[in-house]
Write a structure and sequence with these properties.
By secondary structure, the protein is α+β, with helices and mostly antiparallel strands. The protein contains three helices and three strands; from the N terminus they run αβαββα. A hairpin with a 2-residue loop joins strand 2 and strand 3 (about 65-70). The two termini are about 15 Å apart.
Length: about 80
């Protein structure tokens, strides 16, 4: 039997909570969720990737160009269920 480190299990719980909170907020109106992230913000990029979002390309936003990460609703529902 493999033991999962407590930090990893806590991290998975946080990802599930993040996913569920965002799904509750956007599910009635969205089939595609995006995150607009400054390319220098590596912690946010890691979070986006860990919840299943993939880089979709550059996006103009408030006079600057940020990176757009996104995930389709059907993929979003599966995140954290493995």
């Amino acid at each position: 039997m493999t033991t999962v480190p407590r930090e990893l299990e806590t991290d998975r719980l946080h990802l599930r909570q993040f996913r569920d909170a965002n799904l509750d907020a956007y599910a009635p109106i969205k089939d595609h969720v995006i995150s607009l992230i400054d390319s220098a913000n590596t912690p946010s990029i890691r979070v986006a990737e860990r919840i299943g979002e993939t880089l979709e390309g550059p996006q103009p936003f408030l006079g600057m160009v940020v990176q757009r990460y996104g995930i389709r609703r059907e993929q979003y529902l599966r995140v954290g269920q493995e």
